[in-house]
Amino acid sequence: MGNMDYDLFIIGGGSGGVRAARWAAKKGLKVGLAEGSRLGGTCVNVGCVPKKLFFHAAHVSEQLKDAQGFGWAIDQEVSHDWGSLKEGIDRYLTRLNGLYANMLEGNGVTRYSAWARLVDEHHIELRDVNALESQTQIVSARHILLAPGAVPDTPQVKGVELASTSDDFFALCERPKSALVIGGGYIGVEMAGVLAGLGVETSLAFRSDLPLRSFDQDVRIRLDQALREQMTVYSGATLEKIELGQDGLKRVYLSHASEAIVADFVLLATGRRPNSQVLNLASVGIETSPHRQAIIVNENYQTTVPHIYAVGDVIDRMQLTPVALAEAMRVVEHITGGSMPPLDYDLVPTTVFSHPNLATVGLSEAEALRRGRRITVYEADFKPLHQALQPHPKRVYMKMIVNQDTDRVIGCHMIGDEAGEQIQGLAVAMQAAVSKSQLDQTIGIHPTMAEEWVTMRTPRKA
Predict the structure, then answer these.
(1) Do domains 160-270 and 356-454 have the same CATH topology?
(2) I want to staple 9 with a disulfide (CB 3.0 to 4.6 A). Which of 32, 322, 354, 386 is the partner?
(3) Pick the catalytic residue: 56, 392, 413, 446?
């Protein structure tokens, strides 16, 4: 192999790409990275970070209502300024974009503001996004990492162009008066909760009978109940068409609905698909899955061309930022001759920032049974202390799944305030193979919601 411009070249400046670039540069590799949009990828720009900030804004409305139960009198009319919130979030994201750029520069990574695609097994074509005319250049690399993320996946129905995607949501400058969110996954549930919490007349529609198809059934049931208290929910519904009325409002036709749903904002939250089609994969024979075109990789994240790797949303294993970071670290270790233990996808914790929060780590009850585990299930369903003085208190539900043969905790699921903060600690314990008896021996902190995890003593009756 002749001289190459880079030891490692990365296509994509999202979480996985930036982490790989920094880590590889620290290990002495000459690294280049191309990103045609803002650094930070989906998470920083149109995902985790702005979504969580909107979630906090919406949560304030709940806190204001709860304040009266503690004796606070809200004497004046309370209003919310959507534009002010958006300006604040935009400033914060711009700051993060700059921090990512400084991070790369500080570690000696060469960054290209360019869209990139493969030319052959060792060469990448870069198209400068800042040039007045289309300007391209070719760079070479011994190793290539593909990390272009994912893009919104929209249904092909009549009038779909009248709807917005989750990417578009964060560009909204004004609060809609009414909204219909289509999709029962992370994005749909979270965005519907934000809109409802910020005073928008909101409806949510999804195809299955309950939201969050892959989650534990018991938390799904409780989330569905909570959503129906906040908004209108259409379950078992598929999108058929969207029309624009003379009044400027959208009319959305769903299966099984007797009449059109009218809204001035329609959000399609029907998933994200791997952004693989922009990479010119066929030119080098890299294989993708037939349905979603996810890049196929082995346990070391190598594609069918061994020195070309792929991580993050484009491989469609788990579309979560911390997963992309972990995968990226393993790629760099593999390239440089190091080693890390394989990533255990069963123990990846995750949170849905719904109202209330839902969080989980490990196996659902159904998945544990599908795998042939003999299990014992423990539950806690209670009114937490901070809801004790409310006229309509919100309950908390916790569920623990234990392997009968090993006493090991193999699943924890929760719906309630700050569920993610609690599940993170349990994820650490489960990574260390915590047993139910060890949790039983742990002293709880009273009075907290979290103490319930170490005081569950009675198994659920079959």
Answers:
(1) no
(2) 32
(3) 446
- pTM to 2 decimal places: 0.95
Cβ atoms 101, 44 nearer than 8 A: no
Query: CA 246, 250, 256, 257: dihedral to nearest 10 degrees?
Result: -70
Question: Are the CB atoms for 339 and 33 separated by under 8 Å?
Answer: no
Per the structure block, which two tokens stand in for 124?
A: 């990448």
Fold for 356-454, please state it: Enolase-like; domain 1 (3.30.390)
Q: Are 13 and 34 in contact (CB under 8 A)?
A: yes
The C-alpha atoms of residue 393 and residue 396 are separated, in whole angstroms, by 10
**Under DSSP, is residue 461 helix (H, G, I), strand (E, B) or coil?**
coil
> Which token pair is 424?
């993170």
For 326-368, the pLDDT digits (tens) are 999 999 999 999 999 999 999 999 999 999 999 999 999 999 9
* Six token digits for residue 146: 């593909």
Structure tokens at 82: 């959507």
pLDDT in tens, 208-229: 999 999 999 999 999 999 999 9
Class of domain 160-270: alpha beta
Query: Cα 47 to chain center, whole Å?
Result: 7
CA distances from 182 to 186, 216, 404 (A): 12, 21, 40
pLDDT, tens only, 121-154: 999 999 999 887 778 999 999 999 999 999 999 9
Q: What is the C-alpha to C-alpha distance for residues 332 and 325, in angstroms, rounded to an integer? A: 11
CB-CB contact of 193 with 351 (8 Å): no
Residue 413 near residue 218 (C-beta atoms within 8 A): yes
Check if 446 is active-site: yes
Q: Which residues contact 28 (CB under 8 A, 6 or more apart)?
A: none
CA distance 241 to 232: 19
Residue 137's DSSP bridge partners are 126
Query: According to the CATH classification, is domain 6-46+85-152+273-345 in 1.20.1560.10?
Result: no
Boundaries of every domain in the chain: 6-46+85-152+273-345, 160-270, 356-454
